[in-house]
Amino acid sequence: MGKTYVRIDDRLIHGQTVLAWCPTLSIAEIIAVDDVSAKNPMLKTIMTMGVPSKYKTNIVTLEEAKALLQAEQPHNRLLIVKVPSVLKALENQLGGIEQIILGNLAKREDTLHKVSGATGIFYLSNDDVEFLDRLHQEGQKISFHQLPSTQETTWTSFMKTIK
User: Which residue numbers delimit the PTS EIIB type-4 domain (predicted)?
Assistant: First the structure.
């Protein structure tokens, strides 16, 4: 059975995803979850135009993602969501994910916590922190990591900065 990795990145599918993360994680399938993008043929075309055909690419709604994640696959998958709340909505379908990798997330009205540097720029709300910290406490590996070649910031290190 293949592994499922999760990336939280508000850009969804982009060059770093395809050129750095997919080869590093031996990804065969990309699942980008965003209701707006999934319903917009132009956005789907723009996001997938730079993705080599060797990667099965899905840009799907939250509901479609639930069905896709239910099916076991023999290959590695990369699930990409824009914000942690989407991941929270998929929590029941995420049993056994390998790692949650936090990429970039723009500032929102409710964000209070900022991580920046080699990890990129990432803003989290208190709800985001609470949800991700619960997953971490349950044994999930979580880190801030812009590119496989850059420095990784562990969730534990981040939590020390806000307590």
Answer: 1-163
How does pLDDT run along the chain (163 residues), one tens digit per residue? 899 999 999 999 999 899 999 999 999 999 999 999 999 999 999 999 999 999 999 999 999 999 999 888 899 999 999 999 999 999 998 878 999 999 888 889 988 888 776 566 789 999 999 999 999 999 999 999 989 998 889 999 989 888 6
Q: Supply the Cα-derived Rg of the chain in whole angstroms.
A: 15
What is the rounded CA–CA span in Å between residue 43 and residue 57?
A: 13
Compute the distance between CA of residue 94 and CA of residue 7 in angstroms, rounded to an integer.
13
What angle (nearest 5°) sits at the alpha carbon of residue 155, between those of residues 150 and 161? 100
Rounded CA-CA distance 30/76 in Å is: 9
The domains located in the chain, with CATH, are 4-162 (3.40.35.10)
DSSP code per residue over 108-146: -TTEEEEEEETTEEEEEEHHHHHHHHHHHHTT--EEE-S
How far apart are the C-alpha atoms of 149 and 6, rounded to whole Å? 18
Please tell me what DSSP assigns to residue 34.
-
